[in-house]
Design goal:
With about 700 residues, the protein is mainly alpha-helical. Helices cover about 60% and strands about 0% of the residues. Belongs to the FHIP family.
Length: about 700
């Protein structure tokens, strides 16, 4: 350090005559700092016990005052002195040496303040950005005692970059090298030959943005050499892991500033020429791997939304369970990435989302979902369900859907070999031997259907319904084979009458002796209508931009109806609803919840297939209504075998509502299934009611083949 100062002092003393006393004062303070290193004999004396902090403050005040006296294109003599004599470089060296003890803290504060208080662009000047780069490399070191000052310094840099995006490539230290078949030694020679820029006597003009990710050699080969692990982005990601919440939050805010730069060149630079995406996803994988293997699925399902900016403000008592801290850290980071994806330009968001897909979803999560351990499958499916519920950014939603369902668009075949392994297994898990796995996987699909991504519904259902191969095509074009034959129904009744008929078909489906809602207060149909109206409006708003036709597609005689298959997803749901009388109560609730969600979508084919009791089905085809009719037929037979059926049914219903205590009633599973069946039919009737009147009044949904 002393040798460095001796080389600088002669220049400091011999500098030209100042135009104002400010320069004399500025040089005097700098000489006071340098003289300390020459004269002091106590190397253990902390910097706070010296006059160095005071002198640095005086120098800063002089620079700020001087700038205020200068015009926009002028540079004052004090700033000229600071640049010409590389004062920032020297301070950076002194900070690295930590001499006197605590000097690094003072240097960080000085750099931060000069970048905040000096208004003119500085970061493109070599004698500014070179020491800034060096100081960045001193941040984030193991055992650092200055994390607070470090992260503030880095935040200031990112703020300046946000104001002047063209300086990004100066700060990131991106080296662009031409690569062909040259050896690495040639690259080293090229680096050594690179000369230093000279410092101009005034601020140089702001250069145009130039941050090309690669430069191509004459042979066409190219490569990007990322900076060492001490570059700005590495350090920010490292500090985002800090145990000090404020430090971690400030580091994330800095990363957001960089990622949200609107310039396409800046986004391309960050995406292609830096390890930003890679490091962010590595952290996600790291946090996911730290989650305990034996998490309680119930705790996962009830886990609240975590905000990345303050993950530990939740009620610690209510959310304290084994693994809760790990879950908070993981979901906070996922929320941060989701927020960053919403803020980032498309080119960067796409790159990060793909990195998440390839390295985390495929590399880490998929093996966990396909493992043999039922507990492992259950926990990871519950975590995935929570992730899908929380994620909002379009880019990440798209990658999640592609990961889970794939890209297939052709109609499914009953015996078709599933090309997307994960999709196949997840759908099969909806009918798993473990009821818990089935419930959790069904919940996952329900969360997927709530996302504003049209390909989800197309993949799961619409691609198999779009040609209406489930409808019998008659030569006259009339489709009039109904489950409930009405001799007076001629197909020409107005829309309101048709709506009433459809609603009543569902309301009258369950026989009177199997109904209990009239025996319990607050279990009427009106509540379902209110809820369905609200949900249908939300669903319509969700799908408004999806360009769905409002008219049923004509059936085509050229398409063989024998080819109809509802698809693996609807098949599993229909199979499950067909076993509603013998399945656990919680499982039945989840199956009906998914089907109700599907029925809410304002798509003509889906509406017809799920909510129209009067469609004429081709042989072997099922609709939701036809499945329910078979269940009712089975119920009618089983009612005859249970004494005091209605009395027991009412008692079980009151038990479910918490009005009666537990008793030893037999056939509980059946009775609970009947209750769910009744409520499901009321829910479907309510959905049909809120959808059909407005649709039929506008004549949009009338069957184009109806005579």
């Amino acid at each position: 350090v002393e040798a460095i100062l001796h080389t600088i002092l002669p220049h400091s003393i011999g500098w030209g005559e100042p135009s104002v006393n400010l320069l004399d004062s500025f040089v005097e303070h700098w000489k006071g700092i340098t003289n300390y290193y020459i004269e002091t004999t106590d190397e253990t004396r902390p910097v706070k016990q010296t006059d160095i902090p005071w002198r640095l403050k005086q120098m800063l005040d002089i620079l700020v005052y001087e700038e205020g006296q200068q015009g926009p294109e002028e540079t004052g003599p004090c700033m000229e002195y600071l640049l010409q004599h590389k004062l920032l470089e020297t301070l950076c060296t002194l900070g690295k040496a930590q001499y006197p003890p605590g000097m690094n803290h003072q240097v960080l504060v000085f750099f931060s303040k000069i970048l905040v208080q000096i208004q003119k662009p500085m970061l493109h000047i070599i004698n500014v950005y070179r020491p800034v780069q060096k100081l960045v490399r001193l941040c984030g070191l193991l055992g650092s005692q200055t994390e607070k000052e470090e992260v503030h310094f880095l935040f200031v840099i990112c703020t300046r970059v946000k104001q002047d995006p063209y300086v990004l490539n100066y700060i990131l230290e991106i080296e662009k090298k031409k690569l062909s078949k040259q050896s690495s030694s040639t690259l080293e020679d090229t680096e050594n030959e690179r000369g230093e820029e000279t410092v101009p006597s005034s601020y140089p003009a702001a250069p145009s943005f130039a941050c090309t990710p690669t430069q191509h050699s004459p042979t066409g080969s190219s490569s990007v050499i990322f900076p060492a692990n001490t570059g700005l982005i590495h350090v920010l990601v490292h500090l985002s892991k800090s145990q000090k919440c404020r430090v971690a939050r400030k580091a994330c805010e800095s990363l957001l500033l960089l990622a949200s730069l609107p310039e396409e060149e800046a986004a391309e630079c960050l995406a292609e020429s830096t390890p930003l995406c890679q490091l962010l996803v590595e952290r996600l994988c790291e946090l996911y791997s730290q989650l305990p293997a034996m998490l309680d699925p119930t705790e996962i399902h009830s886990f609240p939304q975590i905000n990345w900016s303050d993950p530990f403000t939740q009620d610690e008592e209510s959310q304290s369970f084994p693994g809760s801290e790990h879950m908070k850290r993981f979901f906070a980071w996922l929320d941060f990435l989701d927020h960053l994806l919403k803020e980032a330009p498309k080119i960067l968001a796409t790159k990060l989302a793909k990195e998440i897909h390839n390295n985390w979803l495929i590399g880490v999560l998929q093996p966990e979902l396909l493992q043999l351990s039922e507990m492992g499958v259950l926990v990871n499916t519950a975590l995935l369900c929570c992730m899908v519920r929380n994620v909002q950014s379009p880019a990440l939603v798209e990658e999640l859907v592609l990961f889970l369902l794939g890209r297939d668009t052709q109609s499914e075949l009953c015996l078709d070999t599933e090309t997307h392994v994960l999709r196949y297994h997840l759908i099969e898990h909806c009918d798993h031997i473990s009821d818990e796995i089935s419930i959790t996987t069904l919940r996952l699909f329900e969360e997927l259907l709530k996302k504003p991504y049209r390909d989800t519904l197309f993949n799961l259902a619409l691609r198999n319904l779009e040609n209406r191969c489930y409808v019998t095509h008659t030569p006259g074009g009339v489709e009039d084979n109904r489950h409930f034959t009405d001799p007076d129904h001629d197909g020409e009744n107005d829309g309101q009458t048709q709506a009433v008929e459809i609603v009543n078909s569902f309301l009258c489906l369950v026989p009177q002796e199997a109904k209990t809602s009239q025996h319990v207060q607050g279990a009427g149909y009106d509540t379902y209508v209110h809820d369905a109206n609200k949900q249908f409006k939300e669903c319509t708003a969700l799908t408004q931009a999806w360009d769905w036709s409002e008219v049923l597609k004509p059936t085509e005689s050229a398409i063989s109806s024998s080819d109809f298959f509802e698809g693996h997803f609807l098949k599993i749901l229909f199979d499950r609803i067909g076993r509603i009388l013998e399945q656990p109560y919680e499982l039945n609730l989840q199956v009906t919840s998914v089907l109700s969600r599907l029925a809410l979508f304002p798509h003509p084919q889906l509406h017809e297939y799920l909510l129209d009791p009067y469609i004429s089905l081709v042989p072997g085809a099922r609709s939701l209504f036809s499945v329910l009719i078979r269940v009712i037929g089975e119920l009618m037979q089983r009612i005859q075998l249970i004494p005091n059926f209605t009395e027991k049914l009412v008692h079980v219903r009151r038990q479910l509502m918490g009005l009666d205590g537990e008793t030893g009633v037999d056939h509980v599973t059946l009775l609970q299934g009947v209750i769910v069946l009744e409520e499901f039919c009321k829910e479907l009737a309510a959905i049909a009611f809120v959808k059909l009147p407005s649709i039929d009044d506008s004549s949009n949904w009338q069957n184009t083949n109806t005579a």
